[in-house]
């Protein structure tokens, strides 16, 4: 199973193959030619003593400082060492792996002026499952993800640390064990490795992929809640959604109806009550809008993962070297803030459905779904946990992209804070999944109280999956274990029953 990089056609399917199936990564033959042409331009410009930013000049505010030919290699290693100053908890191995992949894909595009052997070592690290240890804090998301990518680049020169076969080791030792040799950076190469958006984009890709999976599960869990609360299905009828023609809203309504088809628990308008609360009745409108958000995020990420985002860019056909700003993370910063808001809403409306499931004033079920109300508290405090997570998400969803702090003595006077936006979006996804897990636990318990044999066939499948992880509640127990176990289960691919994705 191989994934070929050419800088233009990398897909989410490819990323998942590299991430989950450890597919072998190769650079496409045509891409190698582009890489070689780009490098040849750099070497010719150096030979002709042209002044090129980051090749024979300093960086940032030092862009007007000319560097002698004898110091060009020293300039590049100094860049990597000085910029490797990120702090905080390291990114996960998954993030580190995707960063390697995305950086390699950007370099394979052929506009970075890097040598083929340097790109090959990036690929070799991927294929040997060498994952650089990269602290997660310290990037402004403009001038690229300089600090995080510098930690990635350190490993290629045999410095820094990496995870190899589950063990954290010095990079030099990791390369030795894998049968690889560190490189000695030549002109332009250090800058080519660190000037890009691959840290914020890698976190963004993982946040999106998990959010997409969570979204589909939230629809299924919402349908199970609808049955547990004997909800009214009229609100999901196609007629009302055709007159407000958002495709995503229509599709969510259609899916909910398909999930509850054959249910003996759902009701019709006027049968028990005329209308349901918004958290039930407005599932298509709210979840549909969330789907729109996911579509937007997917579109921007697809562009970014196949972009040249370093500076300067080398155009081999014309011989031009252009100092521009493709490293600026604003497009993905906006997308990540939007993702944060959308996923926070998954949790917001889910928590309201949890409240309707456990609150005896809002349903005809035993108080807090307890088997012995009063003596036992049942699922009372799970709603507290959901409320706490929802509140935390509200603070995390504060947009990062509206902030900017000048850097490099005001040479780099506007930045995106996109990496912070991506990190927060990822945290929100983790919190939201726990909220949906709590709703699933409560909805399954309500279904058992009502009689799970009355569930729609689709909901029965979901109920069985939940019960395989969270046993029927017959008395109070430590529910933290149930929430954690179901949260982990929801992350797995085999929980994605849907054959067609909305986003």
Oligomer: single chain
Mean pLDDT: 94
CATH architecture call of the largest domain: Up-down Bundle
Q: Could you say which overall geometry the principal axes of the C-alpha atoms support?
A: elongated
Rg (CA only): 26 Å
Strand order of the largest sheet: 4-6-7
Number of strands: 9
When the domains are counted, the total is 2
Task: Describe the fold and architecture.
- The two termini are 26 Å apart.
- Helices cover 54% and strands 6% of the residues.
- With 503 residues, it is mainly α.
- The protein folds into two domains: 2-196, Fumarase/aspartase (N-terminal domain) (Fumarase C, Chain B, domain 1), CATH 1.10.275.10; 204-228 and 285-309 and 324-495, Fumarase/aspartase (Central domain) (Fumarase C, Chain A, domain 2, Up-down Bundle), CATH 1.20.200.10.
- The chain is built from 18 helices and nine strands.
- A hairpin with a 2-residue loop joins strand 6 (161-164) and strand 7 (167-170).
- The strands form four sheets. It has a three-stranded antiparallel β-sheet with strand order 4-6-7. It has a two-stranded parallel sheet with strand order 1-2. A two-stranded antiparallel sheet has the order 3-5.
- Mean pLDDT is 94; it is low at 499-503.
- The relative contact order is 0.12.
- Pathway: Amino-acid degradation; L-histidine degradation into L-glutamate; N-formimidoyl-L-glutamate from L-histidine: step 1/3.
- The modification 2,3-didehydroalanine (Ser) is found at residue 143.
- Its EC number is 4.3.1.3.
